[in-house]
Design brief:
The protein is an all-alpha fold and about 260 residues long. Helix content is about 75%, strand content about 0%.
Length: about 260
């Protein structure tokens, strides 16, 4: 075939991309995702101030005697915190588009029948992401802030800086939301034959250790209350992931059998 010959259908539709083709496609998807994040962050600038006041509610409720204000110890700390809140809003708003770009990147390697799972992958991932954010904000963050703010009040006086407090809240809310997408990821891996339900069951001890490490990374705190509150839903999600892996595994085995026939 000469350079002037048209590509075969299997290559033109992306099912047999070269390495450079995959890298170029990855570059395009990352660029689009970054653009969506940038636009979402710009929108976040418009509501960053009321959102910042909303994010302060756990602190205000836990430290009622405070002046309802956070300290800034560096000249740029206030604007850095402002940008961080806008970035959080942008990441949440851009998440559906980012998930869609992830799907567009992996879909060329799927069969036409497998591509229909986009209707499960994107809504499921987004729903779990939002569920993780809600769990973190309404359960995990208030419990952690109340415990940390009132720890040994006769010894410590709670006067947190904006950088430390907002970083704590933003990091916990966002990464808990990301962690809640574990069942969908496991299902997709099982659907393509990379993991099995039996494998996940047999490796549950390692999974608990990994969950503990993940909880320690997500929560910038070593107190047992925050750690346990973070680990509990992740372990439940792992158990749910095993059930989804069984479903994905059966679908994979069925598709392999049909292809062999």
């Amino acid at each position: 075939m000469t350079t002037a010959d048209p590509l075969p259908e299997s290559e033109s539709d992306g099912t047999h991309m070269t390495l450079l083709g995959h890298l170029n496609d990855l570059r395009v998807r990352i660029t689009y995702a970054a653009g969506a994040l940038f636009i979402g962050t710009l929108l976040g600038f418009a509501i960053a101030q009321p959102l910042l006041a909303y994010l302060m509610q756990p602190y205000v409720n836990s430290v009622p005697d405070s002046a309802a204000a956070l300290q800034t110890l560096r000249p740029t700390e206030g604007i850095e915190t402002f940008f961080k809140v806008a970035l959080l809003f942008g990441a949440v708003m851009a998440m559906p588009f980012i998930l869609y770009q992830i799907w567009l990147f992996i879909s060329p390697g799927l069969t036409p029948s497998e591509k229909k799972y986009v209707y499960i992958f994107i809504p499921g991932s987004l729903a779990l992401f939002l569920l993780g954010i809600m769990f973190s904000w309404f359960i995990l963050v208030p419990a952690a802030i109340n415990f940390l703010a009132n720890f040994m009040q006769d010894v410590f006086r709670t006067e947190w800086t904006s950088q430390d407090y907002i970083s704590f809240v933003v990091r916990m809310v966002f990464w808990i939301g990301v962690s809640f997408q574990m069942p969908i990821i496991v299902y997709v891996l099982a659907r393509v034959g990379m993991v099995t339900a039996q494998m996940l069951r047999e490796q549950w001890r390692y999974a608990v250790v990994i969950v503990a490490i993940l909880a320690a990374v997500i929560t910038p705190s070593i107190d047992p209350v925050t750690m346990l509150l973070t680990m509990a839903p992740l372990i439940v999600l792992y158990a749910f992931s095993i059930l989804l892996a069984r479903v994905g595994q059966r679908q994979f085995e069925r598709s392999v059998a049909l292809d062999a026939a």
